[in-house]
Amino acid sequence: MKKSSLKNFYEFFESIVVALLVIIVLVVFVFRAVTVDGTSMEPNFHHGEKLITTNLFYNAEKGDIVVIDKNNVLGKPVIKRVIATAGDTVKYECATDTVYVNGEKLSEDYIMLDNSPNPYTEDIEITIDDGYVFVMGDNRNNSNDSRNSAIGQINEKNILGKAVLKIFPFNSIGVVK
After folding, report:
1. Is 7 part of the annotated catalytic residue set?
2. How crowded is residue 99: how many other Cβ atoms within 10 Å of its Cβ?
3. Domain coordinates of the chain in residue numbers?
């Protein structure tokens, strides 16, 4: 009877260790929880919300919400929307806050334009380099993003992952679109 109890304990312990290892691998290599910091992604993401990101087999695509690591001018991870990828030409007209990618005006029903002054005063036209993306916040007048020459194009190696799930607050849990 004692050997059976000891064997059961070791099997239980082994199961716990394996489960913890699987969770650690998933958290380190597949999923990551991040907290929205600031207002640059309003009205879609608000300060303090929690998101789950993944980088498993991830290649940046236009429209993706991504988390960029802290190795940027801001010195902290930031959440932005991918506007253009390698080879695309982006044109930004600051007077009308209009964005064109490859000559086509973007239809951006997700952005917020408030009455605050646009901090960007010069038009931009740039072709995105291989291995880089151009990102912008959804709250265009309150976003420090690729329009800022100090930030510019984002190296894809600095993308921690794509936001896939909003997990907090609980009343807004859902898939990120």
Report:
1. no
2. 22
3. 2-168
Ramachandran angles phi, psi of 174, nearest 5°? 170, 175
Q: Catalytic residue among 40, 143, 146, 162, which?
A: 40
Strands 98-101 and 78-85 turn out to be unpaired
The one catalytic residue in 76, 80, 146, 166 is: 80
40 classed as catalytic:
yes
Residues 6+ apart with CB under 8 A from 80: 40, 41, 65, 66, 68, 135, 136, 137, 143, 145, 146, 154
Q: What is the pTM for the complete model shown?
A: 0.81
Q: Cα separation of 111 and 67, whole Å?
A: 18
CATH superfamily label, 2-168: Umud Fragment, subunit A (2.10.109.10)
18-74 residue pLDDT tens: 988 888 887 777 788 888 988 999 999 999 999 999 988 889 999 999 999 876 666
